């Protein structure tokens, strides 16, 4: 039986049909030698309103007709623009496997797998190492359309590609599906989306770089680097919860100012934290609670005119991806791979000093905002109806105060959160988590409060998380205030907001008198 397999090679165009190249094969293995891969040598990078990678061109037209039954496909490409360079990668593509989600290295190549229950079309987008940097985007993007008959198992879309580089490849997805907002769908195939299971995310390299404020975000992977060396004598502090003295802090703000006395290359970085460990010990603390360190866009307010378009989000409560460490906390603009390694160096050094690492995690909402001014980077475009809480009219519910609410107790989203937590424990050796607006995690898929939330129980009972401190901020912006009554399964601790406020009032009185 003949199978058609379609590849796209747009030159960062806003459309979804530029540069289409198809071929037919007589097995599930496809030879991609006929692929036409195009990249523009000169041109101005621009961004359209949908947040799609685009490279300015005068005009590009493409006409293609497909022939079946062993006949070669004929295509005509008319190009009226600046100089174009042509390249032809030689790959083989296999149907791939549905597990694990994200990117994995398997015997036959690099496997990609992504969940979308309601998608009707999924396209894998790749940018190869010769791209230069994500800021320059001077390479082309190759797009591979997945065949639902071959590249889909249940609700998982997957493909395996032989001979892909083992690192330095950027990737994302275009996903299409029903356009019915009333039923909760927000598909837009013009947008290249970040894989929710991407373990590394690339964006602009330097924190707050206004010249790159419209920089895009893509997943990447690294199967070339050696495993991080935690050392033979390395051990976890394992401090009893009752003995913790926790210091809440922001990684970047802690050392970003020149008054830190650090070299400019490591100010505001994970490595900068290491240099200040003696200061932390002098304070008498034995745990740090780091404000969000998952990838976020600090310039999200500056993407459109608004009253806050002069501001930079330095706290980070606006997650793009739940697995990737904030790449701009790497030293010297080192990018995502260095950020991952340096985060581990920071944890190792803190542990060696007897200091535990607790992460402030935001699983109640994402950066994608609301329907009025959406910032679609991932979940919204992949399967909005699954990832977010909706009302009966398909509109976003907002218990976070940030425009959307993650659908935490949906089985797929619950597993995503558990996988994320386990990843930070096994890969980065963190000691615990403080859950921002944790009452959201106690709501059902329709937003109603649950007496026994499945996610809260699963976190409490999870074997990998069993050694971790799990701390709830037990309220949300929908009025679900659970201080003293948070469902805990004898595992969850709570931040006591009332006690905190009383202490603050007392201190103010003492200082005033």
In words, what does this structure look like?
With 513 residues, the protein is of the alpha+beta class. The chain has two domains: 92-219, Immunoglobulins (Immunoglobulin-like), CATH 2.60.40.10; 225-511, Glycosidases (TIM Barrel), CATH 3.20.20. The protein is built from eight helices and 25 strands. A seven-stranded antiparallel sheet has the order 2-1-14-13-17-19-18, covered by helices on one side. Strands 3, 10, 11, 12, 15 and 16 form a six-stranded antiparallel sheet that branches. Helix 4 (335-352) links the parallel strand 21 (287-290) and strand 22 (356-361). It starts with a strand and ends with a helix. This is Glycosyl hydrolase family 13 catalytic domain-containing protein. Residues 248-504 form the Glycosyl hydrolase family 13 catalytic domain. GO terms for molecular function: hydrolase activity, hydrolyzing O-glycosyl compounds. One of its GO terms (biological process) is carbohydrate metabolic process. It comes from Glycine max.
Number of H/I helices: 8
Enumerate the spans where pLDDT stays under 50 for 5 or more consecutive residues.
1-88
Q: For the largest beta sheet, what order do the strands appear in spatially?
A: 2-1-14-13-17-19-18
Kindly identify the CATH topology of the largest domain.
TIM Barrel
CATH superfamily descriptor of the largest domain: Glycosidases
* Head-to-tail CA distance between termini: 87 Å
Going by CATH, the architecture of the largest domain would be: Alpha-Beta Barrel
Indicate the mean pLDDT: 85
**Structural class of the helices, strands and pairings?**
alpha+beta
Query: How many beta-strand elements?
Result: 25
CATH class of the largest domain: Alpha Beta
Shape: globular
What characterizes the major β-sheet?
7 strands, antiparallel
Q: Determine the strand fraction and express it as a percent band.
A: 15-25%
- Count of the separate structural domains: 2
Radius of gyration: 24 Å
Helicity level, as a percent range? 10-25%
